[in-house]
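Subject: mismatched residue count in predicted assembly?

I count 460 residues in my input, but I want to confirm that the predicted structure covers every chain. Input:
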Amino acid sequence: MAWLKKLVGAVIVLGGAGAVAGWVLSAPVRLDAATVAQLGPGDAAKGKRIFYAGGCTSCHSKPGAEGDARLELVGGLELKTPFGTFVPPNISQDQKDGIGAWSEEDFANAMLRGVSPSGQHFYPAFPYASYARMKPADIADLYAFLKTLPAVAGKAPDHKLSFPFNIRRGIGLWKLLYLSPEPVIALPTGTPDNVIAGRYLVEGPGHCGECHTPRDFAGGVKKAEWLAGAVAAEGSGVVPNITPDGKTIKSWSDADIANYLETGFTPEFDSVGGAMVEVQKNMAQLTADDRAAIAAYLKAVPPHPNGYPARKPAN
Amino acid sequence: MRKLVIAISMLAFAGTAAYADPIKDRQDLMKERGKLAGQISDMVKGKTPFDGAAALDALKAMQANAEKFDVDTLFPAGSDQGKTTAAPKIWEDMAGFKATEDKFLADTKAAVAAAPADADALKAQLNTLGGDCGTCHQTYRIKKS
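Triage response: the counts match. Full output below for your records.
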């Protein structure tokens, strides 16, 4: 029986080591001092552009808010996904219920590392996997702009998630796989500046890939099918393929794409719909150059077939 | 006599089935809206010169279209199936759906009443009407592959 004891002992030791390794590997990692040093004092006027590029208000304003009420970032929208229901929190300047008490460094850790001031992981429904590609200076500008917005009291309800997704610590392992500040699409030297500018807007603050790219079993975006379209995380529809092989981007000119982002009209004068309505309202706030850059990048990404199954034939 | 009644009712039924195609009807009305928005947009963008009378005609046509858009007839129960991108939400929240359509009708009437004097005035009207398109499509339409 000695061998059995040994085996049991070995299993316990290995299992224990695995648990320790998992615990260590899943620990929240804050920004290093060098990155924090790059933040600098933010410029609120520049931060406004980042605010709209990032689409903060689409998730963090009260559902159905219009006009100036979209600047009251009180949270409370419900995102119903296969992992459970996520509720974006209050990120207004309220000291207690919002993020009014956060330092610039706290904010940068949330945006670039997905770590809260108390050292917890945020769920990646908050698209920091995209925001991680942002420039520290833009984070500082955004922080300064958010400071100019109203403080609104009221806590949003907690997320309602099922096991095992309700274990926040597990997100640490997810981050090891999917969190990186590197661009998704490597562009060759000599790539025009506006394509590079578009890459930054789309892959970073714009976080377009979060909805337009299919995800794997662990909920990470499949970079090999970047922007190929996906089954919508919420509801029963699909999110279109926006690579040059997608039927829209293929037939639209750069100007058509930019016009769609500005006005919400397709070249056939169909209108924007679904979750893109909120996105388009934000894109309309950017400059014409920014919209043109996004269009140029979308024309330059590798083409992919649709990242969602074909429609079942109608009866 | 009984046979005749049955035959007539069968014919009538077949007739309704052949003619009533609410999905096509509503899609045709939507396409017409798109075409009109396109004409207006061309003037706003200066692709075609601003022509007050033509702009007003387009807005009037938009209003006539909205008046024809009878939700009860065009969205009967069961017409969420088939070649349609109508979201199930329409039938879950019929009152909300009708309210967005009513707002569009009211906005077309307001636009016709305030005949646009120049491209800028027309642009503001197109923004309002286009916003209505988006508000409704945000909730009541789903993209399918």
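The longest strand of chain A covers residues 79-81. Marking this ticket as 'not a bug'.
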